[in-house]
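Quick one, T. Sequence first:
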Amino acid sequence: MKIESGERRQASILHADLDSFYASVEQRDDPSLRGRPVLVGGGVVVAASYEAKALGVRCPMPGHEARALVPRAVTVPPRFAAYTQAGREVFDVFHDITPLVEPISVDEAFLDVGGLEKISGTPVVIATRVRERVREQVGLPITVGIATNKFVAKVASAAGKPDGLLHIPAGGEIDFLHPLPVRSLWGVGAKTEARLHDAGIETVGQMASLGEEHLSSLLGRGTGRHLYALAMAHDPRRVTTGKRRSSIGAQRALGRRAKSAADIEATLIAIVDDLGRRLRAAHRETRTIVLRLRFHDFERITRSRTLGEPTDGTEVVLAVARGLLDEAMPQIRDRGCTLIGLSLTNLSDHGAVQLAIPFGGDDHAGELDVAIDSVSTRFGKGAVTRGVLVGRRAMPETPKLPDR
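Structure tokens:
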């Protein structure tokens, strides 16, 4: 496979990434926290300011370990509603700059500014404007990487942090990438990095010099081809907009205090109710339900089940989710649970698949879902609540991108 470095002759792809997002929002909203090490989350640190990261804090990390590293750190509880709102304001800036915006998460996106030079200036000028407007309008620092393709732009933004701008001109991709450590490439985790180090490969340039065939013999054909392509700055993907999401999901942090099986199930029920509303609002149906759990030792497991027919029914999803949770409950009892998440994947548009005839009678469950959705939309999500959820404190939810 012959690979040329770069796919475009102009570096016009921007990767914009907010810096230490959660902690930056906390420092923005509380001036007394600025310049100080900040930990977001008590039992488990979900985010840390750069002042804390400079002293060794990593995320996720047990709160007691982080506070041992940085005794003078200030710990604040997460405020996910504030983070979601800040993310929306930042994306408003992105969309005002260019219509070609591809969200990656609540705090980062790719922007294609090719063809805007006569209207808005060079990509560097546009990137500078993005940073200035996010700082002025939202009050947050953001780093932007500029390159000929998405992969190099993302690596550039990581290298430019914090609060920076790094431009990799067309033709300069190889010089930029090859001195970097192999962990800079997508797909190089701890195990792959260790295997490469055992083979004497420390940098991206050494990986490229090894060649695709030797790399494939070391890591497997698929991984070898993928990493060799990235090492040669090859990424043909374009910035895409309007693509419907292939999944929707939500998760709740449970903290490190012991939770009963009933508490965990109640949290799962609340997640399912929320996802059911979102699924129907987007006029989608799901066939695959995925349960994700994180234990006290930070290990994670994933369990999934695929249905014979797609559904948008809350009770169907809940029955499957409960079954997956029951299967995992022995591990939860032994290891504790700090996070529970659920994703609905394998989505299709509502009515796109011919469903089996409901010989059991009318779909009263579907009518009930619609009625509850209507009441919730008009009077708020708390207007109709399951009895099992009454009196229970809602667990914090991580921000999510809007369903599209």
